[in-house]
Amino acid sequence: MGLSALCKACNVDLLGSHYVPAFTEFVEAGKQMIASVANRLQNFDEKPSSTALGAKFVAVDRLAVAKQIVSMILVTSGRKVVEEHPALGEFVRAPQKRAIPSPYRLFLRLTPGPAAKVTGQSERMNIATGERSVVAEVVYPPFAYALSFDGTAA
Questions:
Q1: What is the pLDDT of residues 64-110, one digit of tens each?
Q2: Alpha-carbon gap, residue 47 to 105, rounded angstroms
Q3: Counting CB atoms within 10 angstroms of each CB, which of 25, 36, 47, 110 has the fewest?
Q4: How many CA atoms lie within 13 A of 72 on its CB side?
Q5: Can you tell me the distance from the alpha carbon of 101 to that of 105, in angstroms, rounded to the nearest whole number?
């Protein structure tokens, strides 16, 4: 999206070497999924409720993809968010760390686009229930990525 916010060691040596190749393959798979249902998108949009499609990623380095997603969300959320959530930065900086730390949760959805957006850290509220959650989102088709900072659903 044109944002230069990382030093060469982080951007090229860490992300580029460890996470970007797997993430690129993952995004290509997402493009193929969108293409496979492109002729049905208008039908999905006309439905009064959400449409769920099942997908299984069998040859994806899920850890590398998750770390790339977290890094994108942290970079677009700003330094203050990184400083307030050091466990997330440690998760990204350590290729050997195996799981996203608690209470954070990642969410993913397909989106045909064409719009992209970045929210930074924000609070969502369900008006009907009063339930609140703190999230950050990056939408860049074919996927939308959300990180819950408090472990709630995004």
A1: 999 999 999 999 998 899 899 999 999 999 988 889 999 999 999 99
A2: 28
A3: 47
A4: 25
A5: 8
